[in-house]
Amino acid sequence: MNSIEIKPVHASAETLAMLADLLVETVAAGGSVSFMHPLAKEAASAFWERSLAAAGRGERVVLGAWDGEVLAGTVTLLLDYPPNQPHRAEIAKLMTSVGHRGRGIGTRLMRAAEHLAVEKGRSLLVLDTATEDGASGLYEKLGFTLAGEIPDYALKPHGGLTGTLIYWKRIGAQSR
User: Fold this and answer.
1) What are the CA-CA distances from residue 130 to residues 15, 27, 59, 134, 162 (Å)?
2) Is 0.85 surpassed by the pTM of this model?
3) Which domains does the chain have, with CATH numbers?
4) Mean pLDDT of 48-66
């Protein structure tokens, strides 16, 4: 596990291909990350191109978990909020490759995202996860508080509706 390095993702053709493969694999495995199965690699690549462009503008940070030269996971910290919400950030697109699951990578990515949010002056994190097969256990273990559930929020990648659970967490000086 010590070989996993968490760092911001920067755009390159090779990294974009790994991000797209991870997104396609996550959706195929049933991950509710806004896409339907089957997800074309071109659509996944286009998503990550837009996401990394937004990161280049400072609107978000995409973190990667690297196992040597292999992208083992990713999480996105959304930072672009209206003027009345400069204290808030959102966690999005937490994904770990199927072959790397169960090794604490999601926890490490979340902790890195939280640390980065504090560095950027944020005091509140929010996120949502699918009611069915989501990561609610991980988020609760990391100190997030359930605000509530919205039923029938989105389609599952292989069809059928699922609700979403909304979580929040005070961070930094506000968490004390």
Assistant:
1) 27, 13, 24, 5, 6
2) yes
3) 4-175 (3.40.630.30)
4) 98
